[in-house]
Amino acid sequence: MSSLATAGAQIEPMVRSSLQERGELEALRFKWIESEKAGHDLGEAAIRLWICRHWNRFIRLRWLEHLHGETCWIEFDPRAFGILRRSPLLDSPLTETILEHFRWGEENLHIIQWAMDAGQPMDEIRLILTILDVNSSRVPCRFDPAHRFRQNAAG
How far is Cα of residue 72 from the mean position of the Cα atoms in its chain? Predict the structure, then answer.
């Protein structure tokens, strides 16, 4: 059984949202703003630019919202929703520091290196990283125009 399943009772979300739908909306807003600045429609190039510049950070911040129980994103594990409210281990002062590293866009390896350099308790660090499971938050962008082109060409 996973550590998420044993972390406690589920927190029932009020609304479930889609990262793909919200991300596409953000990309379209970006396209509109950038096209207004340029004085003409930038088309799919603006969408691809938003994806390159913002998708990974967008996903990381939505993952943190999911863990905090703020928004249940359907692309993430529903058992992880609100885990930061349920797991007593996550009350550790190290948890907030690790979450801050994730907000900065760092990955497990960066955090482990920081913890080793700072003489932090590695067993606790590894346990927190295992419970948080940042690797499960990798979500590919499905509305990328290049992605749709490759799908249509293959099918």
Answer: 12
User: Mapping DSSP to helix (H, G, I), strand (E, B) and coil, where does residue 143 land?
Assistant: coil
Question: Tens-of-pLDDT digits for all 155 residues of the chain?
Answer: 344 444 444 545 457 899 999 999 999 999 999 999 999 999 999 999 999 999 999 999 999 999 999 999 999 999 999 999 888 877 889 999 999 999 999 999 999 999 999 999 999 999 999 999 999 899 999 999 886 645 555 55
Instruction: Enter the DSSP assignment of 11.
Output: P
Task: Give the pair of three-digit tokens for residue 66.
Answer: 């999911």
Buried/exposed code over 3-29 (b: 16+ C-beta within 10 A; e: otherwise): ebeebeeeeebeeebebbeebbeebee
Rounded-to-integer distance, Cα 90 and Cα 88, Å: 5
User: Is the full-model pTM beyond 0.70?
Assistant: yes
Do residues 71 and 65 lie in contact, with contact meaning Cβ atoms separated by under 8 Å? yes
